[in-house]
Amino acid sequence: MNEDQVIQSLAALAHAVRLRVFRALVVAGAGGLTPSVLAEQLDVAGTALSFHLKELVRAGLVTQERCSRNLIYRAAYAQMDAVLGYLTENCCAGADCGQSVGSCCPGDDAATSNPSA
Question: ATP-binding: is it a keyword of this entry (predicted)?
Fold first, then answer.
């Protein structure tokens, strides 16, 4: 992951609604959520939510899949882990500081991840 990708991801999360959306999708896990469920849970207007989801997808933090007539949004755990890995890559200048800097979620893809683990 390069610096520009990290900046794009962090910029996408630097908005209260987008941060809440991303966190809700992390909690939802591999099943993801539809925009209508997200809008209801977060009390966000559909048009505003659509804009924010588009920004999260563009940053690679969220994936979108069409399932029949619905769109399903899921957190992109691999991207989240890559951002966290970039931020902690040189933690404590390489000294053992007792902190785990590995993956936040088991597995690298959303289908096998359990974000509450």
Answer: no
